[in-house]
Amino acid sequence: MIHDEFREGNIAPATQNLEFIKACEARMPRGHVIANVRLNSAGYQAGIFNYCEDTGKTFAIGKPPWSGIACAAKCPRTASRS
Asked: Which of 7, 49, 61, 75 is deepest in the core (most CB within 10 A)?
């Protein structure tokens, strides 16, 4: 385990998820990185998508059940997107 966070009270699950990812990275041993991120629908946030893309992380994030999105996939940057 790298890091944990206990949330008291009525805090939304989507609160500060990006900050949590960054806090985990800051605690990694020297020379190690977080290469993959997996989150439930609480992590369905543009800031997290952008951060993962910008830092080259592979990521899987569940879609919110209320969304109109039928399917989403993250393809490797080297893959054809036809």
From this structure: 61
Three-state SS for 58? strand
- Structure-token match 């879609």, residue found: 63
From the CB of residue 61, how many other CB atoms can be counted at a distance below 10 Å? 20
pTM for this prediction: 0.72
| Lookup: tokens for 67 | 């969304």
The residue type of 74 is K
Low-confidence ranges of the chain (pLDDT < 70): 67-82
Domain range annotation of the chain: 33-64
The angle that helices 46-54 and 17-26 make with each other, rounded to 10 degrees, is 30
In sequence order, what DSSP letters do the residues of 6-75 get, joined into one string?
Answer: ---SS--TTTTHHHHHHHHHHTSPTT----EEEE-GGG--HHHHHHHHHTT-EEEEPPPTTS--------
